[in-house]
Amino acid sequence: MIDLPHCPKCNSEYTYEDGSLLVCPECAHEWTAGADTTTSEDTKIIKDANGNVLTDGDSITVIKDLKVKGTSLVVKIGTKVKNIRLIDGDHDIDCKIDGFGAMKLKSEFVKKI
């Protein structure tokens, strides 16, 4: 019996081989055998306007008046946003702003509280 490594994401012991890849059936993570366990999504670092590293669940403050596309509303400078979620793309912060609802923001227009 071959002793396969545990999943680097969820630490599941039920990994299996699929060709040259190792696969976790619990979280669907795939990686190559012998490679280090960090992936490109783990190494992407998102920073605020001051250079502080942002993480999921952080609280931020808007540092510039931001027009909301498609409406006449403006997110004012100093607006506080709690519990952000980092995503891939041009607008790399997904959040809910009181009075506006769900929005996506660019990290260059916010600072960490």
From TrEMBL:
Xref: SUPFAM superfamilies: Prokaryotic SH3-related domain (SSF82057), Zinc beta-ribbon (SSF57783)
Family matches, as InterPro entries: YjdM, YjdM_C, YjdM_N
Domain Protein YjdM C-terminal: 46-112
Gene3D superfamilies: 2.20.25.10, SH3 Domains
Location of the Protein YjdM N-terminal domain: 4-32
One Pfam family this sequence matches: YjdM
Domain of life (superkingdom): Bacteria
Family, as annotated: Belongs to the YjdM family.
Protein name: Protein YjdM
Organism, as annotated: Paenibacillus monticola
Organism taxonomic ancestry: Bacteria, Bacillati, Bacillota, Bacilli, Bacillales
